[in-house]
Amino acid sequence: MKTSKVLSVLLSILIALVVLAGSIAVPLLCRSFYYAHIGPMRLEEYGLSREEIKTAYDEMMDFCLGRREKFSAGVLAFSQSGANHFADVRGLFLLDLRVLTAALALLAAALAVCKMRKVRPHPFLGWGPGFWAAAGLGASCLIVGGLAALDFDRAFVIFHSVFFPGKDNWIFDWQTDPIILFLPQDFFRNCAVLILALLLVWCGVLVGADLWAGKRRKTD
Asked: Is 55 exposed, middle or buried (0-12, 13-18, 19+ CB in 10 A)?
């Protein structure tokens, strides 16, 4: 069976995109992850019941995920500046989901073409695209995760400076935007830890799968 270097590079990129966007999507779509923080972070001490907090979070996330057109946060008041920031967040969330959907579709199409044309990816240095996707993601995650672990507060500021350039509406005043009381920085840190853990797990799976595939390549 003939091999293709271009196909190998393409598959590596698509696999990396699927794993990255998919890992980011987990805390966006799994609301029980946030609900599990309500008790341990004592969020009810800010004056809302557990159900009111869940409703506020659900409405906010429904807006950020494109399921409602106007921003709202349950019984909580909000400023126009705060609503504008969540509109910016909405753009990032939807971008991640679109990248995930597109990458999955392209990956499926590429694999289908491989099967029909009987072509397989070229094993650079003896490794397949799954390994190289894992290597790139793993190295990036370890570097970014390590820097963030050294000073998460600074990493938090840098993140917002990069993804919301020239804007400061992400700096909330709890008196005008009390939603920030129910979105403590520790929650975002835990989201980052979850994403990093998922990425590293998938990198391990990809390396393991490539080792198994490598044995098959040698016997072909």
From this structure: middle
Residue 100, CA distances (Å) to 51, 96, 216 in order: 31, 6, 29
* pLDDT value, residue 125: 76
The residues facing 124 across adjacent strands are: 127
Q: Which of 88, 85, 72, 90 is nearest to 28 (CA)?
A: 90
Q: Which of 89, 53, 43 is nearest to 74 (CA)?
A: 53
Residue type, 32: S
Contact 19, 203 (CB under 8 A): yes
pLDDT tens for residues 117-127? 888 877 777 77
| The Cα angle at residue 219 between residues 216 and 220, in degrees rounded to 5 | 90
Comparing CA positions, the residue from 15, 28, 7, 8 lying closest to residue 136 is: 15
Instruction: Give me the residue spans of the domains in the chain.
Output: 2-219
Token pair listed for 195: 């994403």
Nearest to 29 by CA among 108, 96, 103: 96
Can you give the pTM of this predicted structure?
Answer: 0.90
d(Cα 147, Cα 64) in Å, to the nearest integer?
Answer: 28
